[in-house]
Amino acid sequence: MGTSAPLFYGYVVLWINVIVMLLSMGLLAVALIHCLTQRGPAFQALGTLPKGAWAGILAVLLVLSGFLYNTLLITMIAIAVAMVYLLDVRPGLKDISDGKGFW
What we know:
Elements: H1 4-36, H2 40-46, H3 51-67, H4 72-96
């Protein structure tokens, strides 16, 4: 009974890492696509990082979370950055564009 617990633990940790990695990659992909479809001057009017900086940060974290799915710290940072973009920057961009647009 004692020898099966480490094997079970390893599988649980692996699947949790994979699920969290897929979640973070999905959030990052949505945030990156939204960022790339917005106008650059809207970011300046909002007073946040420029469009290129947001796109670069999101793209790098998307690649890193795909390659380093065993590193939960990188994945959690990626989720935090995607949520900051989606919950803070995206509504500001929507307000600047008068709520019109695809998103």
